[in-house]
Amino acid sequence: MLTQNLFSLYAILMRPYILSALLILSLFSCDTQQDRKAIKTDYLSNWFVENEDNLYKEFIEKVQTTSLCKTCDTTWGEMAYQNLDSATLMGRFSIEAKRYCDSIDVTYFYNKSRTPKARILLSLNYNKNYTEALDTVLNSVAPKHFMVDKYEQPDMTADVFGLENGDVIVKELRFELVPHGNLQDLIVFIHGNLKSKTIANDEKDYLLHQLFGEELLLKKINNVDFKFTDTLNSNSLTLNEARIKLK
Fold first, then answer.
1. Are the CB atoms for 108 and 118 separated by under 8 Å?
2. Residue 222 lies in domain
3. To 10 degrees, the CA torsion angle through 145, 147, 151, 152?
4. Which residues contact 200 (CB under 8 A, 6 or more apart)?
């Protein structure tokens, strides 16, 4: 009886230390799980790392055969390729990307004047519902042969964009940003001698895609309004200034 009472007293006295030890072990376990989760790669990354060498070899062979052959017209600067053929590595990577998220499209590019010459673009076709999915792939990958882009990039070199009713001069565009929660409403001021003061919706999309690219339009911009002006407002933003503020 005395032994039982002593054991009960010992258990009561030791309970705080036991609970503290369990708490420490629990916290250590949580940290370990979080660390493992942080370095865990997605299966698309795993596939790319395992197959990049052969994927690049296959891609270069395709470019040589279809675009750089002796009888090919080689006056182009950059060529784009898409493939969903499961018999090829190019197609299988595209299929794996769609298995991760059906809205992800893969496009392969070859540019003769850039290093690296091979590029892979993963795009959502401007669908803002799946940016989180695209942001979570290929983050742990250091490509050896390809430049890998997420989201379609803006055209950083064009001086003029041709529309049906006239040319839009990039240096004569002006922009205003109006905060809208965590996003921005964008006003585009078009200055120039256009045939009419209207732009078709598809041309609006084309112009915005070229000016800002996919990531800014999906993640930073809420609404866009086009306005025509006969004067350039020095207080409004240039294209480069607008891009910087939106980042």
1. yes
2. 160-246
3. -110
4. 164
Please say which residue of 104, 121, 150 terminates a domain.
150
Residues 206 and 186 in one domain: yes
Q: Are residues 140 and 236 in the same domain?
A: no
**Which tens digit of pLDDT belongs to each residue from 46-60?**
999 999 999 999 999
Nearest by Cα to 154 from 133, 115, 192, 123:
123
Residue 66 counted as domain residue:
yes
Domain-located, residue 220: yes
For 77-109, the pLDDT digits (tens) are 999 999 999 999 999 999 999 999 999 999 999
**123, β-bridge pairs:** 105
- Three-state secondary structure call for residue 228: strand
What is the pTM (predicted TM-score) of this model? 0.79
User: 10 Å Cβ neighbour count for 216?
Assistant: 19
